[in-house]
Design a protein that fits this description.
binds zinc ion; elongated; single chain; disordered N terminus; alpha+beta; 5-stranded antiparallel beta sheet; about 140 residues
Length: about 140
């Protein structure tokens, strides 16, 4: 699972990560890349490397979660501003310039089989390829 490789997601970590099994079939430590001797199911050269690897892995997950939350918060702020300006629609181009990420939603509901309604917390909107529209706040009926 290359997307979960913590070595690629920890900037500031300068060590080169290697695959646990390289072309020559010799297993290497997932953390430091040292050749592993002994049992073939070993993944780390020792407890220090195992702990270090697992803590990168955990912080990678935390990072993904906080990036998503930050993105949703930013989206929410932008949508809130539009509502306060009594705007019911906005071109996607303008939204993305402001930092809106259309991929981040908290809920998706199909309404009347026509348009998909997306939600960012208590704010709902529909989206076409060019704009969002029917932007409104859900009055307590989430
Ligand atoms: Zn190691």
């Amino acid at each position: 699972m290359p997307s979960l490789d913590p070595g690629k997601k920890s900037p500031g970590h300068t060590k080169m990560y290697k695959n646990d099994l390289e072309e020559d079939g010799i297993p290497h430590c997932l953390e430091c890349g040292e050749i592993l001797y002994g049992r073939s199911d070993k993944k780390f050269c020792g407890a220090t490397c195992r702990n270090a690897w697992h803590s990168h892995f955990r912080s990678g997950k935390r990072l993904a979660r906080s990036l998503t939350l930050n993105g949703l918060t930013k989206n929410y702020k932008i949508l809130e501003d539009l509502i306060s300006l009594k705007q019911k629609s906005c071109p996607l181009d303008s939204l993305t310039v402001l930092g809106f990420n259309p991929e981040l939603i908290t809920h998706q509901a199909v309404k009347n089989g026509r348009h998909t309604e997306y939600r960012c917390f208590d704010i709902a909107y529909c989206q076409s390829s060019a704009k969002i529209f029917n932007l409104h706040r859900l009055g307590g009926k989430l």
